[in-house]
Write a structure and sequence with these properties.
- The complex is a heterotrimer of chains A (about 250), B (about 450) and C (about 500).
- Chain A has about 250 residues and is an alpha/beta fold.
- Chain A has one domain: 3-Layer(aba) Sandwich (Rossmann fold), CATH 3.40.50.300.
- Chain A is built from 8 helices and 10 strands.
- In chain A, helix 5 runs parallel beside helix 6.
- The longest helix of chain A has 15 residues.
- In chain B, strands 3, 4, 6, 7, 9, 10, 12, 14, 16, 18 and 20 form an 11-stranded mixed sheet that branches. Chain B has a 10-stranded mixed sheet with strand order 2-1-5-8-11-13-15-17-19-21, covered by helices on one side.
- The N terminus of chain B is likely disordered.
- Classes of the chains: A alpha/beta (about 250), B alpha/beta (about 450), C alpha/beta (about 500).
- Chains in contact: A-C, B-C.
- Chains B and C meet through strand 20 and strand 21 of B and strand 22, strand 23 and strand 24 of C.
- Strand 21 of chain B pairs antiparallel with strand 24 of chain C.
């Protein structure tokens, strides 16, 4: 489904290379965890997959269903069914979450030649998901992410994921800074959406989230390269020993 | 496109043109006889005189944004004279009014002239040279005349002044304290036009304390100009203390040009003069320069204080902060006219501007105009202004704890000013200014009528 | 002054009208008085309208005053606007559709071509096409053509008609209130308007009556080289309420057109007026040629416990000079100003408000959002004045600028004058751009770059747009989008 080949990426307009050749294949229905110390490039990888202009791919390729997406704009990638749950979601004054998601959903349905959802049908879906995700409905009357706590922002990302129903969901340190309830909520959100046709790439520093969401494959990313790949056991090993060994070697 | 709609500023006739002309003629004749000054100084005097003679005082203020709130007809009406300074002022007498500690290097001007009978007190510092300002090669480069009556007058009557030359990479240096004493006595309505030029060398760090004080009552006109040029990575801490007498007129101009990575930080403390104005412009010409213009002003009775505070960002990555606070009582009036200009291309500018005012009485007026002019999109600029009185809830809270009304109000006034005064790193100076504020407190409170009954 | 700096540019040029869909012109036969301004023209306008002697006198006094200001070269120059000298003798001061010489008695008499024009504008003029709940007065090149909903309003004693009709039918009201808020001596453009105004709207809401529908006027400049000088007067008597909407468009012309309107609002004790404007006069080409010069004086005055609220969305005009203001004369009265002003391409806007606090416990709120794009220059200029008797007055001002691109300018010039120590004032302002992070966030959810820009900008303007009546709010959103085309994405 998602294939990354020899991916190099640098900060746009600078020579600072952050990803130094990454190979990764995510098949339908799989959950991959990408772990790594601070500054290893794991958040950069998440951003590059979604096409953040801060970074430029300097070498290699990213394909979805065999087609390269490197030249695509972020909105085009979203239309393909990609989704990035952000570490620091932006605040957008004056834009209501409902309005935002309706526009996002319409844009994708339009791009894929599907019929736009009616306001009524969308509202029903929206309300269902709000309840499912357990986000405070009062927040939905505010501007997008404005005045939301860290945990509320993350739940709001889960809400967006639930409404947009992506095929490839990338989660960028969604677990960082969350209390246990919020962490549980995020995990529930992911687990509920796990399906044979949907893949997840979970970027995380700690193993915490992986207690609740069992990954199929775990990768350790250090200094812009994947240094080890394994099953869920690898995450436990990393938790026990930390990243010291990897950093020392690299 | 032509600037077809720019305000047209009409020249104004000068009521006592002949007085100014006679004084200027004899001044330049005298200077020629001495023959000491540079050609540059002579030229500046001539250009300054011609400009002043052409434009006069901006008494006709229609369409003149710069003088919207300050009426200069009083100034125009008085024949201010330029002449020999008073003699017989002792260092001891001055020391009673302003601190002249050994920790500072003190230079005293009496009536605009560096008084030879008063030796500079405190000791000289290495890396700092004091010269006659007329010898400065860049004299007038930052303040020539700019179609400004006061800058022009200062240039026209340019005397020896003071050139402060700070070498490269001077790490630590004694604060330089320049005191301008006005006597305002024997010449009737005297005018003084002192000029300081400061050049801070690359990588040097210096402190300048500029104090203006009157020895006697009586009206005099003080028109100081300070030009500061800052090299790369230099720092200047500039304190400005304006304690001129209550019948005096004070029109000051400060121009600062900042090189790359330089930091200019000024704190001004103004409570003197009948009509006072301080016109400041800092130009951030090198990237990553930082300009901080802070001040506190107190006005009582019928005083009028005007602050024209401008910062211009012409290159990227500049940081600036204008922050003034005012305390007004009686029938006094204060004007804050702040301006931050971000020129095209000056991206990543971070600029702040704030003017907060405490009005203590009916009859007092504040006019505040914090303005932004922005031609670059990737910038962070914010400004704010407030006017109001002492917070009644806080006052009540203090009273409920047994503090009497006057004491509580004084505490809040002090607290309001403290935010600016606390930034004064020099403890001697800070204590002196805190005491000055306390001396003024009864006058501020006497006229206060905002919060009804105690 | 060289010829090319004159208001009328005779050089031929290709017009770039993409994006301005209101740019059609209507081929209606017009009656034009000769170009130029003199006493005869003022007399002609007055006699065409069959005006009473006192009104002609008032016009002539205004003309004298304007002539004096013009002689003294007192056209205001303090605004941050650059435009060529206006040749006041090169403008038509009276242009009326010929077939309207006798004024239409009903909609049947309206020229079909003109009805079509209003259809294109989306104005609900015709009975079957009108929007529910909106009474419309349409002013076409300064002449009012038709008013809907007349009868229903009449039942409640509400008067809503063209200014000319009001002069004929309600002279006592006109005489009482005309110039009571904006005297002809107020400023250069107000004096000009007072001398030559041709028509406009008049509304009067009797004591205690709440106007059941939103009153609306649509203004359109059609004739080339004509100036438009409409005059609007709205009076909410004691305890009355009215919401009034005003929309403006103009056809594409390569010459600039002068628009100098005056709007006076009178809210007597406990009265309330909500005045909303969508100003979409032709902004000129993307290279800055042509467009409307919009010099407008709008002001309201309050009685005790009264309220006046201005909301404006300014996307049009080459030059905007406009400061809808409130004189808060009555105790406990309230003034509000909500504004979104957009300057794209070579548009220049110098706009804001003046809140003059005279009464005790008066309160004002200012929310201004300025958007600059292309080579646009946008200035917020606002005054808050607290006079000595205004005990416990409060003002809160929030004024934000958004820059789109690095060739535009955004300026903020507030004047805050406080002469009462019990006042509380706060002014806050910020400058920002659409952040890359916000853009990426929205785009990552599938929204296109242009739509994301638009969503962020409208969201940023929401505090103002939400003050508009619903249909107008939708139109405002669309207008912002169309006006920003080409500047983003």
């Amino acid at each position: 489904m998602l294939k990354i080949e020899n991916l190099h990426a640098a900060v746009t307009d600078s020579d600072e290379e952050i990803l130094k050749g990454i190979d990764l294949e995510v098949n339908a229905g799989e959950v991959h965890a990408i772990m790594g110390p601070n500054g290893s490039g794991k958040s950069t990888l998440a951003s590059v997959l979604m096409g953040k202009p801060t970074y430029t791919v300097t070498e290699g390729d990213i394909t979805v269903d065999g087609d390269s997406i490197v030249e695509m704009m972020p909105d085009e990638r979203a239309h393909l069914g990609m989704f990035l749950a952000m570490q620091y979601p932006s605040e957008v004054p004056g834009v209501r979450p409902w309005q935002f998601l309706k526009a996002a959903r319409d844009a994708r349905d339009g791009a894929n030649g599907e019929k736009k959802m009616s306001v009524r049908a969308f509202s029903k879906l929206f309300d269902e998901k709000v309840e499912e995700v357990g986000i405070n409905p009062d927040l939905m009357r505010r501007s997008l992410n404005e005045g939301f706590s860290g945990g509320e922002k993350k739940r709001n990302e889960m809400l967006q994921m639930a409404v947009l129903e992506p095929r490839i969901a990338i989660m960028d340190e969604t677990d960082s800074g969350l209390d246990i309830d919020a962490l549980q909520a995020v995990a529930d959100g992911v687990n509920q959406m796990r399906s044979p046709s949907r893949s997840f790439v979970i970027v995380t520093h700690y193993q915490r989230l992986l207690h609740y969401v069992r990954p199929d494959v775990v990768h350790v990313l250090v200094n812009g390269r994947i240094v080890e790949t394994g099953n869920a056991k690898l995450a436990e090993k990393v938790e026990a020993t930390g990243y010291r060994d990897y950093v020392a070697v690299n | 496109m032509m600037t077809l709609n720019a305000s047209k500023i009409e020249p104004n006739p000068i009521r006592h043109a002949d007085v100014y002309r006679n004084d200027w003629d004899s001044f330049v004749a005298n200077q020629s006889r001495n023959g000491s000054a540079s050609d540059r100084a002579h030229e500046l005097r001539r250009v300054g005189w011609e400009e002043f003679n052409r434009i006069g005082f901006p008494i006709n203020r229609r369409g003149n944004e710069l003088w919207k709130y300050t009426d200069l007809r009083q100034i125009d009406r008085m024949p201010f004279r330029f002449g020999a300074p008073s003699s017989g002022i002792s260092l001891e007498a001055i020391a009673k009014m302003v601190p002249l500690p050994r920790e500072w290097q003190n230079v005293v001007f009496v009536d605009g002239v560096r008084d030879p009978s008063i030796a500079d007190s405190g000791s000289q510092s290495d890396g700092l040279t004091l010269r006659d300002v007329t010898a400065y090669e860049q004299l007038g480069a930052l303040a020539g005349c700019e179609s400004n009556a006061f800058v022009s007058l200062n240039s026209a009557f340019l005397d020896d002044g003071l050139m402060v030359d700070i070498d490269h990479d001077v790490e630590s240096i004694k604060p330089l304290h320049v005191v301008f004493v006005s006597t305002g006595s024997d010449l009737g309505q005297r005018a003084v036009y002192p000029r300081i030029a400061v050049s801070v060398g690359r990588g040097s760090h210096a402190t300048l304390i500029e104090t203006h004080v009157s020895m006697a009552d009586g009206s005099h006109l003080s028109v100081p100009v300070v030009e500061i040029s800052m090299g790369q990575q230099s720092t200047l801490r500039h304190y400005r203390v304006q304690l001129d007498g209550e019948d005096s007129y004070h029109f000051a101009t400060t121009r600062v040009k900042q090189g790359e990575d330089s930091r200019y930080r000024s704190t001004s403390f103004s409570m003197g003069s009948s009509i006072g104005r301080h016109d400041v412009l800092t130009m951030l010409d090198g990237e990553h320069a930082e300009s901080t213009l802070h001040g506190v002003y107190m006005t009582t009775n019928r005083q009028h204080q005007d602050f024209e505070i401008s910062t211009t960002h012409s290159v990227p990555h500049g940081t600036s902060d204008q922050y003034y606070k005012g305390i007004l009582s009686g029938r006094s009036r204060a004007v804050f006219s702040g301006k931050i200009t971000v020129e095209r291309g000056a991206q990543k500018t971070d600029a702040n501007q704030k003017d907060l005012n405490l009005l203590l009485s009916h009859g007092a007026e504040v006019d505040t105009k914090p303005s932004l002019e922005i031609y670059a999109d990737d910038v962070k600029c914010a400004h704010g202004a407030t006017a109001g009185h002492v917070d009644e809830d806080t006052l009540f809270y203090l009273q409920s704890r047994g503090v009497d009304y006057d004491t509580a109000q004084a505490m809040l006034i002090r607290g309001f000013a403290a935010e600016i005064l606390d930034e004064i790193e020099d403890e001697l100076l800070r204590t002196f200014l805190e005491d000055k504020l306390d001396e003024l407190m009864p006058a501020l409170q006497q006229a206060s009528d905002t919060i009804g009954t105690a | 002054m060289t010829t090319q700096d004159r208001l009328t540019i005779s050089r031929e040029s290709k017009l770039d009208d993409a994006g301005y869909k209101w740019g059609f012109s209507t081929d209606v036969e017009m009656e034009l008085a000769p170009k130029g301004l003199n006493e005869q023209i003022v007399q002609l306008i007055s006699s065409k309208k069959n005006e009473p002697e006192w009104l002609l006198d008032w016009r002539l006094k205004a003309f004298d005053y304007w002539r004096k200001l013009h002689r003294e070269d007192s056209e205001p120059r303090w605004a941050k606007l650059r435009y060529p000298e206006i040749d006041y003798q090169d403008i038509y001061y009276y242009a009326a559709p010929k077939s309207f010489d006798d004024a239409p008695k009903s909609l049947d008499e309206v020229d079909p071509e003109m009805l079509e024009t209003f259809d294109k504008l989306g104005i609900p003029l015709h009975e079957r096409e009108r929007l529910a709940g909106v009474a419309v007065d349409a002013v076409f090149d300064s002449v009012s053509v038709a008013t809907t909903y007349g009868e229903q309003l009449e039942e409640r004693g509400i008067i809503f008609c063209s200014f000319s009709e009001a002069v004929q039918n309600h002279p006592e009201l006109i005489k009482k209130y005309l110039g009571s808020v904006v005297p002809y001596t107020d400023n250069f453009f107000a004096a000009l308007n007072s001398a030559v105004f041709s028509d406009g709207s008049f509304a009067y809401i009797p004591p205690g009556v709440r106007c059941p529908v939103e009153l609306m006027t649509y203004f359109r400049i059609n004739t080339e080289g004509s100036g438009q000088f409409e005059r609007t007067l709205i009076v909410a008597d004691e305890g009355a309420y009215v919401s009034y909407l005003e929309g403006c468009t103009a056809p594409i012309r390569r010459t600039s057109q002068l628009h100098a309107a005056v709007v006076e609002l009178v809210a007597l004790d406990r009265g309330e007026i909500k005045y909303s404007t969508i100003q979409n006069w032709y902004p000129g080409t993307k290279d800055g040629e042509g467009g409307v010069y919009n010099f407008v004086t709008k002001r309201g005055m309050t009685g005790d416990d009264a309220k006046i609220s201005w909301t404006q969305v300014e996307t049009g005009s080459a030059i905007t000079w406009k400061y809808p203001s409130v004189i808060l004369r009555g105790d406990n009265s309230v003034g509000e100003f909500y504004s979104v002003a957009l300057a794209n391409n070579y548009q220049q806007a110098d706009t804001g408000t003046k809140m003059i606090h005279i009464g005790k416990n008066t309160k004002s709120t200012i929310v201004s959002k300025g958007i600059s794009a292309g080579h646009g220059e946008n200035t917020y200029r606002g005054g808050v004045k607290i006079l000595p008797g205004a005990e416990n007055a409060t003002n809160h001002t929030q004024c934000d600028s958004l820059l789109v691109g690095d060739q535009c300018g955004a300026h903020t010039v507030p004047y805050i004058e406080v002469r009462n120590p019990t006042a509380r004032l706060e002014h806050e302002a910020s400058t920002s751009k659409v952040s890359d992070e916000q853009l990426f966030y929205l785009m990552s959810r599938g929204i296109s770059e242009e739509d994301a820009h638009h969503m962020i900008i409208t969201g940023w303007s929401r505090d103002v747009i939400k003050e508009l009546p619903f249909e107008f709010a939708l139109e405002a959103g669309q207008l912002l989008k169309v006006s920003l085309e080409g500047a983003v994405g």
